[in-house]
Structure formats: C-alpha cells, structure tokens
Amino acid sequence: MSDHLAIAQWYSATAHDWAVAPRFNPVDRWYHRLAVADDHEVWLLTWLPGQATEIHDHGGSSGAFFVHSGDLTEDTVSTAGGRSRIVSRELGEGVGRRFGGHHIHRIVNNGIRPAVSVHVYGPALTSMTKYRLGPDGLEVLTVERAGAEW
C-alpha cells in the first residue's frame, strides 16, 4: 500500500518535472492528472480565491493532499454525537493530510492569493458523491463517474 501523503509531497517537491504548468481558470477550479500507477493516481489542482469544491467523498478511495502553494481550508463532515456538522482546518503551504476511504469533505480557498495542491487517490477514483448538509444530515446531490464528468 502506498503512502499517499509521501507521494503528494514528492510531486510537490519535483514541480519542475510536472508535465504541465499550473493554470488558473477564473470560472472554475483547474485540474490535471499528473500520473497514474497500479495502486494510485496523482492530480494537480489550482484554486483562485473563493474557489471551492462541493462537499464530496472519493468513492471509497483513500488518499492525501498537499498544499504546494497558497492556503486552503478543509471542511470535514463530522458525525460525532449522532449529528452531522462541519469541522474546519486551515492548511498552509507545505502542509498536507491523509484521509481514509470514507472521508467526506470540501476544500475552499478562503485566502487572498491563488493556491496549488497535489492530490493522490488510491485506488484511482472511479466515482465521487456530492452532498449537501441539510437539517436532517447529509443528503446526496449527485454521483459523478470517472470518464463521464471528469
């Protein structure tokens, strides 16, 4: 089993070898798959101030992400105490975190400068479920499939 965070850190440290340079899209986050192996894949994502994901999971894949530059906020859904709530964590440049296959979160650039992050998923993503946190807890909005929506 791969150490997803170590892989993300290695890709961040070897940015000069990336097949593409990070790009920034004013309408939506930009992303590009950097690598795929038998047991994981590596993605490069960029975030302008205010850009964010929806609350989502990774279809059972575990992984990690590493902030290459800028600052990001991770909002994790916690179900401690029997009800769902958001727990926020600030992640600055050079900081990363691992997550398991049942992790549900969103990532936001609440900062004033663009951010770049490296994400590793193992096994490779096949689906992602997007959620809304409603009065009765998590509600499924959509299920996206690799090759169809991304």
UniProtKB/TrEMBL annotation:
Matching Gene3D superfamilies: Jelly Rolls
Q: Which InterPro entries match?
A: CDO_1, RmlC-like_jellyroll, RmlC_Cupin_sf
Q: One Pfam family name from the record?
A: CDO_I
| Sorted UniProt keywords | Dioxygenase, Iron, Metal-binding, Oxidoreductase
PANTHER family listed in its UniProt record: CYSTEINE DIOXYGENASE, CYSTEINE DIOXYGENASE TYPE 1
Give the UniProt family note.
Belongs to the cysteine dioxygenase family.
Which protein, by its recorded name, is this? Cysteine dioxygenase type I
